[in-house]
Amino acid sequence: MIHYRKILELHDEGISLRGIAASTGNSRQKVTEILAIAEKKGLVCPLEEEMTDRWIEEFLFPEKTLEASGRQPLNFDYIHEELAKPNVTLSLLHHEYEAECRLKNKIPYSYRSFLRHYSRYADKYKATLRIRRKPGEIMEVDWAGSTAFIIDRDTGEKVKAYVFVATLPCSQLSYAEATLSMDLHSWITAHNNAYAYFGGSTQIIVPDNLKASVTKHTSKELVLNSTYREMADHYNTVVMPARVRSPKDKSSVEGAVGAISTWIIAALRNTHCFSIDELNEEVWRKLEEFNRRPFTRKKGSRLSAFEEEEKFALSPLPSTPYKISVWKTAKVRPDYHISVESMFYSVPYEYINRDVEVRLSDSLIEIYFNHMRVATHKRLYGKYGQLSTVRDHMPDNHKLYVDQTPEAAIEWAENIGTSTLKVVRYILDASTNEKQGLQSIFSLKKSERSYTKYEIERACKMIASMTNRPTVKSIQTILKNNKKNDAEQELKRKTEISKNNYGFTRGASYYGGKDK
Q: Which domain range does residue 355 map to?
């Protein structure tokens, strides 16, 4: 048996390698190897009483114990590294280990022994055990049961502050933030800040069944809050709420909540802050101390475990944090508009009387029907009752009415003829207000449905020759009369043609008589 403890203690006293080798009966090469591995694994003097030669040997050379059994040794570093990869489990690694043993004609360890040896290795050498939690896989979130407080400067009263907690189960690194409410805006903002603190996003978020995260959660159906689902999509993560009344589904954050309630909330019980920003500065100072506190049963801290074992596995954050938006439902009114906070936004008229979903952000209003976006508007602010109307959302008859402008009226008249243009200019100039004149021209334009451009131009030419004050009504009368006269003349012409169009008849001579 090598005297590992003596070697380490002599080295700590400053004895040379030659002196240690002579004192312990080991070669200088072996002594150098032991000291190098001990330094690499952080085993330094003074040593505790339970650190016997056998304990130190298992700590420095765990493979020796396994080799002594005649079984295929385990590569613990490889196992620990592979477990960090997505979907890799100990059962898969054990299956591959057994296949390797068969090729080398070695005896493999059973799965239970395989699991036990890895657990011992991870407990001694690594900050995290990757059997249950993979690095970068899950972030568990919740509100702390205990509350902090700030002091109102005016009244001196204590105002409750609620503490949001997020924990990464693999490394146990936690984030905490105080807010004045537990509403949706605070919930989403705290998530943004948590991801910024961790420097990346996880594959899965595990929240409780709060209204800010879950609308409905039964054994058959899960409906997430629309804003929360949108935030998860922004960070390319999946929301998997804990089962109702099942705190074990998020045991890490439940434990972190208890610890943070003690080491942060309770530690600040005598600290007086007068704003939520001041309180958060104190919370984050205590949080830094909390994450740097050494583990009680293994070396390292939450922060060192995160940096060594989990930080690499987080997904990169988007270029910009998620901007909160609010979802509402609305019914499309008969005038093909919806009302949102006393402002009115148009929707394609085909959706009249339909229920639609509305997404409100700081700058945009987006309208969805059956998860398909049908309209987008710039959000209106200021005086109530403002309208945002898109021309393409209108039915055709409404488009005609809205398109009535002096410029459009003159353009239309130019396409008809010079007489029509003269009449339109007169109506615009003679009307007491522009709207009245445009209404009259609109009535004239509707004549195109029943009359040709030639007929309209002819009627305008006739009315211009009769009076210097033409009206739309008089033009419409002439159009009707012209139509009637044209129809009568056409009928007369057809009648005359039918009278003059005799058929071929045989004369009397054909029958033996004499033609007269």
A: 326-396
Give every CB contact of residue 207 below 8 A, 6+ residues apart in sequence. 140, 141, 142, 213, 214, 228, 239, 241, 242, 250
Whether residue 506 lies inside any domain: the answer is no
Shared-domain flag, residues 392 and 410: no
Q: Would 505 be classed as within a structural domain?
A: no
Distance set, CA 262 to CA 11, 144, 175, 265, 267 (Å)? 42, 11, 14, 6, 7
- The tokens describing 31, both together, are 């002594």
pLDDT band at 490 (very low <50, low <70, confident <90, very high): confident
Instruction: Give per-residue pLDDT as tens, 334-363.
Output: 989 999 988 999 999 999 999 999 988 878
Residue 457's alpha-carbon distances to 333, 408, 410, in angstroms, are 41, 18, 14
Domain count for the chain, please give it: 4
Q: Read off the tokens for 463.
A: 């009315």
- C-alpha span between 125 and 119 (Å, rounded): 10
- Domain-embedded: residue 249: yes
Query: How high is the pLDDT of residue 344?
Result: 94
Instruction: Indicate the SS3 state at residue 176.
Output: strand
**Both structure tokens of 288:** 């830094």
- Rounded Cα gap, residues 350 and 344, in angstroms: 17
Note whether residue 452 is domain-resident: yes
DSSP H or E run through 195:
helix 184-198
Lowest mean pLDDT among 351-360, 414-423, 506-515: 506-515
Q: What is the pTM of this model?
A: 0.54
**Pair type for strands 158-167 and 214-217:** unpaired
Residues 469 and 438 in one domain: yes
